[in-house]
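Appendix B. One record, verbatim.
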Amino acid sequence: MEELEIKLKEAGKISRLTNKTFKFDPRLKDGFFAANYFLKSNKIVKENCPNHIVTMQFFQRTDDAMLCGLDEAIALIHEFAIHPEELEIYALNDGDIVNNGEPVLKVTGKYENFGFLESMIDGILARRSSVATNVYRVMKALKGKDVFSMADRQDEYNTQIGDGYATYVAGIRKVSTDAQGYWWGGHGVGTMPHALIQVSGGDICKAADMYHKTFPNEQVTALIDYNNNVVRDSLLLAKHLGRTLRAVRVDTSKSLIDHYFDDKDTSGFDPHGVCKELIFALREELDKNGFDYVKIIVSSGFTYQKIEEWVKLNVPVDTYGVGTSLVNNQTVGFTGDLVILDGVDQAKEGRKDIKSNRLVKVSYPIY
C-alpha cells in the first residue's frame, strides 16, 4: 500500500484495500478479460432496456471455506465499474469462514454499469478463496507446528502475489519469494537448493561451508537428501558444522527409497519418499549423537491430510514445507447470479436472494 492509502485507512475514511494495492491491468475496463457473452449482454441491455436496478449475489458450494479476494473484487468494482459511487455493495471480509450457499458479496445498481465484471469477480474469489481454504486446512492440521509456503514453483509466476496474500490471510507468514509477500509486506526466506550441492560435486559439507562463508550471520539449514542417504549425511554435516547447523530439510522424491533402508525390513510400511519411519530414525540418530538441537524440516508432497496424520502420530517434525497442495487445488468455486430486479425477487430457477446479517456495507473510497 502506498503511504496515502495507509493514512486514509488509519483515519477511517476507507474500509478496504484499493487499486493502489492491487494495481489492476487497465485492460479490465475494456473487457479484455471478460467472457464475451457478458460483453454482449452489457451492450444489449444498454441499448434496449437500460436503467433497471439489479442485485448480483455471489456464493460458493463448499462448507468450512475461508474467504479471500473480497477486498480485491471490491477494489476492482470501484476501479472499473461505470459510476461505481452509485453502486451499493455488501460483503463479508477476507478471512471469514463460510458454508455452502452463503452469500459473500452483493452488488446493487444498474446492470450495464457493472455486469461485465462478473466473471473476473468470480475468478478472483475462486482463486484467492481456494488458496486461503487450502492453507486454512493445513493450519488446522498443524496444531501449532511451524510451516512455510513453497508454492512459488507450483504455478505461473504472476500468481505469486495474489496467492501469497491469500496464504497470509489464512495464517502463513513464511514464504519463499518477495512476490508472495508483496501485498502484506513480507519477504522471501530460504537457504540452499539442491543446485548448490550439485555445483559442489555432491559434497554437502562444501556446499554448507560456502553458504556460511557468504552469509556468516546465518545458521545453515541444509537440504539433506541429495545423495538419498539422509541419516548418514545429516550426521556427517552435524559433526562438520556443530552449532552452525540449524536444521536439515528432507525432500526425498516419492520415487526413491532412502539408503537408510538398504539393510532393513520394510515389509510393514511404504518406505518411498519422505516417510515417517525415516524421520523417526533421523531424529533418533541425531539425538543419540548429541545433535538434539538440529531441527528437522520436511517437504515434498505434503497435504493437510498427511500433516494431520503425522501430527497425531507425533512424528518429530519441526517445520513443514508445503507447496502444491496450497495452490494447485481448486477447492472453492464461485457463482454470481442476478437475484433482484427493480426491488423485486427475480432469479433463475433454483436461485434466490439469500438474506444474511453477516454482510457489511462497503463505503466508496474517498481520496
